[in-house]
Design a protein that fits this description.
Elements: H1 2-28, E1 38-44, E2 60-66, E3 74-76, E4 83-86, E5 91-94, E6 100-101, H2 102-109, E7 111-113, E8 119-120, E9 126-127, E10 133-138, E11 145-148, E12 162-167, E13 172-177, E14 182-187, E15 189-192, E16 200-202, E17 206-208, E18 217-220, E19 228-231, E20 233-235, H3 241-276
Antiparallel strand pairs: 1-2, 3-20, 4-19, 5-7, 5-10, 6-11, 7-17, 8-9, 10-11, 10-14, 12-13, 13-14, 15-18, 16-17
Helix pairs in contact: 1-3
Length: 277
């Protein structure tokens, strides 16, 4: 029995150590754009009971869940290429500027994020603060291909130099020239999942599709199924400092309680050994 008590208490230590770690991670990312806070849920573990008068402790199992389907507050930004989604969906991004078909992107060759802090790199590609390329559909009619959005390679140069970029609520990226003309660069589709909570997180504030989330389906921004894009805005972290400190205090108290249980189980074992010696 003492060994079962120890196993149950150790599972409690493991759970609450993870809860403290998750709270620390959430607090550390309170200023990370598009960050989705992580929760550590508890699932009870039961052991088959030998007879009705006896009880065999089972313990608890930790389950990690990052709240990818929860939207953070939107904050204004002075940069037109800072983008936020108001509503469901994710920006499709890639580690490289290579084109990818929509079918391949849906099947896992693209990543997805709510971090819309995009800015042109040295080659004119829009990349976010983690270095991921924003994917869009070129207006040339290549609707089955997603390409990295480039705001410097526009037209044949007859309109002059690009002086600015605007993004509509529907995801239309437009270049503004010094002669007053405009030209459409790309359309940014929004990736929507049947179960966004099933997405798996990766370093850099991105997610990849899993069997639980289902494949991505791409919709026009601002449609019935996808959120609208707000230019000059960023989605803030979903971390709530007060909640995280409360979670940390409760986890720390529960951790201490599990240590006390281990101490009691150890004393019981010692007493048993002393009595049988």
């Amino acid at each position: 029995m003492a060994s079962s008590i120890l196993q149950s208490a150790v599972s409690g230590l493991h759970l609450n150590a993870q809860r403290v770690g998750a709270a620390a991670d959430n607090i550390a990312n309170v200023s990370t754009n598009g960050y989705k806070d992580t929760q550590i849920l508890a699932r009870s573990v039961t052991t088959a009971q030998g007879t009705s008068p006896t009880y065999a402790p089972g313990g608890v199992q930790a389950i990690s869940r990052q709240l990818a389907d929860v939207q953070g507050l939107l904050a204004p930004s002075a940069t037109s290429t800072d983008l936020a989604l108001s509503g469901a969906g994710f920006f499709a991004v890639s580690r490289t500027s290579d084109p990818v078909s929509i079918q391949d992107a849906s099947a896992g060759k693209a990543l997805f994020t709510r971090d819309g802090s995009f800015a042109p790199d040295s080659e004119g590609f829009l990349v976010n603060s983690s270095g991921f390329y924003l994917l869009g559909q070129k207006s040339s009619g290549a609707n089955g291909v997603l390409s990295a959005v480039n705001v410097s390679r526009v037209g044949d140069g007859a309109d002059g130099n690009v002086t600015g970029v605007s993004v509509s609520a529907e995801g239309r990226v437009t270049a503004l020239f010094d002669n007053g003309n405009t030209s459409t660069i790309s359309d940014i589709p929004v990736a929507v999942f049947t179960h966004p909570a099933g997405l798996a997180a990766e370093t850099g504030g991105v997610f990849h599709a899993t069997d639980f989330s289902g494949r991505a389906t791409f919709f026009k921004a601002g449609s019935d199924r996808a959120g609208a894009i707000q230019s000059g805005a960023l989605e803030l972290s979903t971390t709530d400092i007060g909640t995280e400190f409360s979670n940390m205090i409760m986890a720390q108290s529960a951790y201490k309680a599990s240590l006390s249980v281990i101490k009691v189980a150890d004393e019981m074992s010692r007493q048993l050994l002393d009595e049988t010696a």
